[in-house]
Amino acid sequence: MALFLPALVVLIVTTSAPLVYLAWTSLERIDLSMPWLSGFAGAGNYLQMGADPRFWHSLWLTLIYTVSTVVLQVLLGLGLALLVLRIPKGQGILRVAAILPIVLAPVVVGLFWRTLVLAPDVGLVDVVTRALGLPSYNWLGDPKLALLSVIAIHTWQWTPFAFLVMLASLSSLPPDVFEAARIDRASAWQRFRYITLPLIRPAIVIVVIMRTMIALSAFAAIFAATGGGPGTATEILNLYAYRTSFSELNLGYGAALAMVLLAITLAVSFVMFRARRAR
Amino acid sequence: MTGKRLRTVVLVAIAAVLLAIWAFPVLWALLTSFKTERDVLAYPPTVIFTPTLRNYADVLFGSASLLPNLLSSVIVAGVSTFVTLLLAIPAAYALARLELPAKRASGFYVLATQMLPPVGLIIPYYLVLQKVGMLDTYTGLIVIYLTFSLPFAIWLLVSYFEDIPREMEEAALLDRAGRFRALWYVILPQVRGGIAVTTIFVFLNAWNEFLFAVVLGGNRVRPVTVAMFNYISVEQTLWAKLAAGAMLAMAPVILLGLIAQRHIVKGLTVGAVKGGGRRA
Description:
Order of helices and strands of chain B: HHHHHHHHHHHHHHH
CATH architecture of the largest domain in chain B: Orthogonal Bundle
Number of domains of chain B: 2
Largest sheet of chain A: 2 strands, antiparallel
Oligomer: heterodimer
Mean pLDDT of chain B: 83
Number of strands of chain B: 0
Structural class of chain A: mainly alpha
Low-confidence stretches of chain A: none
Distance between the termini of chain B: 38 Å
Mean pLDDT of chain A: 86
Number of strands of chain A: 2
Strand content of chain B: under 5%
Number of helices of chain A: 12
CATH architecture of the largest domain in chain A: Orthogonal Bundle
CATH class of the largest domain in chain A: Mainly Alpha
CATH class of the largest domain in chain B: Mainly Alpha
Radius of gyration of chain A: 23 Å
CATH superfamily of the largest domain in chain B: MetI-like
Largest interface: A-B, 86 and 92 residues
Low-confidence stretches of chain B: 273-280
Helix content of chain B: over 70%
Number of helices of chain B: 15
């Protein structure tokens, strides 16, 4: 017990106590730009949310962002792993390349894409599209394209993770099962659908759970690439809570938004772990 | 036979494209970091140019030198990693081996704290540190970094402790070595590799952290992830300097990533793997 206690105490003090404080703050009105209005607000912040279109918009974006990035990562990661598994040589170097995006700081990745990859004229993508004779797009400046771009950034950085997990899982499958299936003349699709997929299901479930949690706490890459803009085009709930608290200095309302974020995260993780146990 | 060959060629080609997509932005940045600002803006982009080290010299020793920021990052990431391991090693050992009251619940609690989105916690951290006058201090930021590194380190280490054969430890205890001495002389040498991997990951995460650093830091404590924004302003972007700065900021994590590459999948899936019983 003496061994575990110090860590436990630190965790309680640094994570659980702040949660209580956050809950309390969300019931207060703390607007550093109008400090004279500070005071207890009760459920005021939460009531305000109901009529706040920006809040609903950010929730909607969070949903799109989370679902699309997770689905893309799983599909691309699995597809790539299946492909790479058949390559006789060079898997090692691919693994190294896959690690590259994963270890980079999301904020640096965001800045990278904003400048060297997606910027008009200078960016890699623009150079390629222009070389192909296509018009030049302002990927992060155009509200219609910006969300697409930040989804692409997240997918670029984290598909290697899904890829590596799936590859590890696929390479550990027993080959004799496939041999038997081949003798029974199961088609490639049947082998995949009825043997591979059930066997690597645990890996897929892990990837889905972990990537969902990470997508729900995504912040730095979007912050660096667009700052939530243009306007509110890429303002997922994380960004909205941050901007409200630290750009508009309305900490009370920001805290209420953060509470919603925590509640969503908690609910989603609960559902996912339950679903996983049930199987 | 030719059909099979063709297929291999296609597969290798696809793999090569993949490699390019993942590696190219980084290589592009590396290339850009050796260009002059004028060469960066050339169209079509120049691949052949006279490389210059000016950007690195500017970024390191110029008026807006990154050196203090790199130092900031080293201090924050280094110290928080050290403290994390100091707390996490005994805790992980206890979770893996000892009879604890409410062991499952404690384990789950540690796991749950790891999932909290940082944006959800940043407001209370900011308010509390402001109240105690610890905004923009190393101590403040390091303590806050424990909130994400400690749960992660505990979970990763538990998986290594569980891999040690119990007999070994029991033998040590039979020799009346005592818990602490058994841990120190018998168990720890066994998990040396696991501790090294954990250290790398914890350091990597701390080095890459941004949100806490930008809100809770300031002029004194300004890690390199925050300082990256020096090169971007509304008026102009210093492309080549940004690239050089980014290369410097990324070099340590790329190096560590390569060292720990074989363990990366394990490091990244820790927690979720353990969340539902033993791994296959």
